[in-house]
UniProtKB/TrEMBL annotation:
Organism encoding this protein: Gossypium tomentosum (Hawaiian cotton)
Annotated Gene3D superfamilies: 3.30.465.10, FAD-linked oxidases, C-terminal domain, Uridine Diphospho-n-acetylenolpyruvylglucosamine Reductase, domain 2
InterPro entries referenced in this protein's UniProt entry, alphabetically: Cytok_DH_C_sf, Cytokinin_DH_FAD/cytokin-bd, FAD-bd_PCMH, FAD-bd_PCMH-like_sf, FAD-bd_PCMH_sub1, FAD-bd_PCMH_sub2, FAD-linked_Oxase-like_C, FAD-linked_Oxidoreductases_BP
Lineage per the UniProt record: Eukaryota, Viridiplantae, Streptophyta, Embryophyta, Tracheophyta
Name assigned to this protein: cytokinin dehydrogenase
Signal peptide residues on this chain, from the entry's feature table: 1-21
MF terms (GO), sorted A to Z: cytokinin dehydrogenase activity; FAD binding
Enzyme type, top EC level: oxidoreductase
Domain FAD-binding PCMH-type: 50-226
PANTHER family the record matches: CYTOKININ DEHYDROGENASE 5, GULONOLACTONE OXIDASE
Amino acid sequence: MATKLLLTFAICRLIVTMGLTLEPTELLRLGLTVDPVDVESASVDFGLMTKVEPLAVLRPSSAEDVAQLVKAAYESSHGFTVSARGHGHSINGQAQTGTGVVVQMSGVRSSGKPSVWGGDMYVDVWGGELWIDVLKSCLEYGLAPKSWTDYLYLSVGGTLSIAGISGQAFHHGPQISNVHELDVVTGKGELMTCSKEQNPELFHAVLGGLGQFGIITRARISLEPAPQRVRWIRVLYSNFSAFTKDQEYLISLHGNQKFDYVEGFVIVDEGLINNWRSSFFSPRNPVKISSLGSNNNGGVLYCLEINKNYHESTAETIDQEIEALLKKLNFIPTSVFTTDLPYVDFLDRVHKAELKLRSKGMWEVPHPWLNLFVPKSKIADFDRGVFKGILGNKTSGPILIYPMNKNKWDDKSSVVTPDEDVFYLVAFLRSALDNGEETQSLEYLTNQNRLILKFCDEDGIKVKQYLPHYKTQSEWKEHYGSKWDRFQRMKMKFDPRHILASGQNIFTPTFLSSSKMASW
Ligand code: FAD
């Protein structure tokens, strides 16, 4: 009883602070809370580099609850911000807000299970659903989404606001290329259904739109028959040009005679072999890096990671198919590492590594990640200047590198990619440790990120940040380039008071004076 009274009191204070037009009972019914546990968890993210406490947290049970809150924010006389939060796996506070409410989309009571429509090959899911749960529901029907992220404990709304990429993107495109329809609550509090045919402007703006135009409450995702097993292969290269030539060849293949997943990573020191992406090699596949020619190559090796999905009924031909594909590649002949596992274990591989790191206290540490799209024509320059230059021989985490085909990305979406037919994702997935080693400190790694961006700028390597993070609007304008005008127009149309996803730091909420903004 006392707790309820305190909560009602806190909510009455909020009503005054935020200029809300809703009654306290109505706010409680919507799922608004100021419980310190909810507030604390909404004030941090995976990056652990930014802490911002919201005024309150909404735990909605339906799209209508979200719409009612956003409408109240849009109509409020004082104004307040609303930020959707999926699983909070951003790096730089993108899902946080200090001037309003965080809508906790994942892990809320509402959503219900994903609805799988087997005949039409799609699934309807709540925007806060985690991809691991989408997978589990679809597998009950022998189906699965086509395009993934490497890690499945991310929300559907969170990855569709970014793009969502993994080793399938070369063929299926990013996750945003595999969505038929969305329900979205705009910054005016309107709940709208959109697709390529219905409200197409909103549909395209929201996909890869960094949460700027609306909160995704439902997504209709395209499915395919789920493979049962995966043959997962890693091969090594000491020659960067041979490595990228093979990756580019592999992503040019179509039809059945191709791998289903193409990724890769850079190995700049033997320590990396023990990190969370590389458990694959051990203990059954011990690798002695120095024995594979990295000494002749500035200590750098490149690992191509590929897989072929299959059904048990076609198991007898899988070896031949893989052999035929591997024959065309130029890796170090003694460096083939193969494993075979159920499809779901392959997709959920990073979670295993997460559990290991958690047990060692190494998951909840700052993550100064840097993700870049690098044009194909400059990837060799990037190798020379960054992998063999700036990095030295310490990395503090995996460095992914894999190419994608631009024609699998819909240019109408809000994402920006380099202006070439093929571009690479280069992802520096670093963990900062407070263990006295300078090269693992947050300051050192953050500075290294700066040096990498500076090198690209000075060398004319026109990279685009993936999961972009900028501090000023002029940097955002440059990031969006020719898409900026449309981006801004869509913002005016769908979120005219700039109340949504202010943690991205692209637009200033209109109710905040510039002096208030500076003190955020
Ligand atoms: P949050 O961090 O909660 O939110 C991210 C942004 O999206 C915020 O601006 C938020 O306001 C907005 N948002 C959240 N939900 C909604 C919604 N329903 N509607 C509208 N806007 C919303 N990315 C890849 O592409 N490929 C990978 O392989 C990959 N692997 C990763 C592995 C790890 C361990 C981590 C931590 C991240 C990885 N990412 C990867 C990045 C990840 O996709 C993004 O950070 C994504 O935004 C996180 O989803 P989330 O649900 O945690 O979003």
